[in-house]
Amino acid sequence: MMKYIVVTGGVMSGLGKGITMASIGRILKNRGYNIVPIKIDPYINIDAGTMNPFQHGEVYVLGDGAEVDLDLGHYERFMDVELGREHNITTGIIYSAVIERERKGEYLGQTVQIIPHVTNEIKARIREVAEKSGADVCLVEIGGTVGDIESMPFLEAVRQMQGEENGNDFLFVHVTLVPFTLLSEPKTKPTQHSVKALRELGLQPDIIVCRCEKALKEDVKAKIGMFCNVKKEAVISAPDAGDIYEVPLLLEQEGIAEYTMRKLQLTQLTEEDHEWAQMVERRKKSSEGGKLCVALVGKYAELEDSYLSIKEAIKHAATELGCNVETKWIEAEDLEDVDGLDPFFEDVQGILVPGGFGVRGVEGKINAIAYAREHKIPFLGLCFGFQLAVIEAARNIAGLKDAHSSEHCETRHPVIDLLEEQQEVDEMGGTMRLGDYEVFIRKDTLAERIYGKNKIVERHRHRYEVNPAYIEQIERDGLIFSGSDRSGMRMEIVEIDGHPFFFATQFHREFKSRPNKPSPPFKAFLEACLRQ
Ligand code: GLN
Q1: Would you say residue 523 has pLDDT above 90?
Q2: CA dihedral angle for residue 244, residue 249, residue 252, residue 257, rounded to 10 degrees
Q3: Hey, which CATH number is domain 291-531, 2.60.120.10, 3.40.50.880, 2.40.128.20, 3.30.460.80?
Q4: Looking at the annotation, which residues are catalytic?
Q5: Are 210 and 216 in contact (CB under 8 A)?
Q6: How far apart are the first and last CA of the chain?
Q7: pLDDT for residue 188
Q8: Does position 158 have pLDDT exceeding 50, yes or no?
Q9: Are 298 and 306 in contact (CB under 8 A)?
């Protein structure tokens, strides 16, 4: 029988529901369970692909090319699973399926309504994903905050589902906030109110996870339990953690594992896996290790969530190397029209230029890359960072002064361009190269040393490519294209021989990094920084 755990949130957004659910998943995985997570996003967008990272944080890309909410990144990293398009359900997906069915006449003349047609569609999707996965436990996170109009159909659907499934196959976890007053007094009223809102919808939480500045005392838990009809031991205190990877351990200490297993009648399947706890130990040690400072030159530098996976990938590599990496966020535009970049980079051991779209900040990023190349500072470029490294070399080494990407302007030397086959489709997202593609690595290159093999599969999200007409010219002058697709027409990796570390990839290696399996290019980049 499939077991379901549904995670909802109250009081306000941004409490870390995603991390909470990812942590519960990890805890069950450590006990031998196969887990399948689903994120429900109650917005009308079909997917996150068209959304501004300023508002929503990074667009996370899955192996099958789906552009999804960044919580799926947390799930993949915490549970060490590979997810696909079907694991992110949005209002847009549900409604377009229902409307399509209506147009085909499949509702046989009925009035098509939220209940039951929309809710049936939601339930069917959740069950289908759960069953197809072959997992033991399906975790469903409902985005948004209880009380929002948007999430109502989803809450109603899980309410119905609970009635249809066996009592001990369904568990509700509600994540709320317990704020502290200036006098350090914890306030339970917001939690009481959000549970009340949940109950008005016919949902009673089994577990309440209270996000708070510091751990809650027993009497506070008892009070929450009493007002919210939840056992005291099911009121879990989740104080702010210095490190998100500690959250599974903190929740365990609070007894969430025992309570969840008892409620769902699960028994421990395997001996407990301590790999995660060991990784957290290593992370603690590495925070006392050698210090590194890496500059991240981006456009949304002020909003760190837009580069979330990169931030995590750096952490994973640092954990393995036992060093402590600080990221210096630099706004690309600040590097334009200035008299020299020394003041920005004198205290850093490495420079990273991440992915991006649009023209703003482009020249600043190119300046940063030129600086890294000339001053022999380790450089890692990802996607847009790769394309700009090629433009920089074309301009400053190959002497093509007006080299540019045709994404940004018409130029005599579009070294980054759309390939012919792409030019025909111009619908939003229609031409993007998304998800897993094979990359073939040339022998005797840095790329080969980093990966230790000649064929890899990496995730992509880009529209423009290195223009094949310029490859020879750029290579002649020092850049090496050490990875490409099978045809050899699409360049995937670029490096410079004789530089301490100059490595850039068209693909996004940050999406496949795991806390205990760091990404090879990130690890090699930090190793080079350590040597500085
Ligand atoms: N804007 C570039 C392109 O579309 C790079 C995209 C990215 O960095 N994700 O190809």
Answers
A1: yes
A2: 80
A3: 3.40.50.880
A4: 383, 508, 510
A5: yes
A6: 56
A7: 95
A8: yes
A9: yes
Within 6 A (CB) of ligand 1 lie 355-357, 383-384, 387, 407, 461-464
Cα 2 to Cα 462: distance, rounded to the nearest angstrom: 38
**Ligand 1 closest atom vs CA 382:** 8
pLDDT band at 426 (very low <50, low <70, confident <90, very high): very low
DSSP secondary structure of 410-470: --SEEEEE--HHHHS--STTTT-EEEEEEEEE-TTSHHHHHHSSSEEEEEEEES-EE-GGG
Coil/strand/helix, residue 397:
coil
CATH class belonging to 3-273: alpha beta
Query: What is the separation of C-alpha 460 from the centre of its chain, rounded to a whole number of angstroms?
Result: 14
Ligand 1 centroid to residue 467 C-alpha, Å:
14
Instruction: For residue 64, count other CB atoms closer than 10 A to its CB.
Output: 15
Taking the model in full, what pTM does it have?
0.93
pLDDT at 271: 86
Domain boundaries, the chain: 3-273, 291-531
- Does residue 430 have a pLDDT over 80? no
Q: Which of 218-227, 303-312, 493-502, 522-531 has the weakest average pLDDT?
A: 303-312
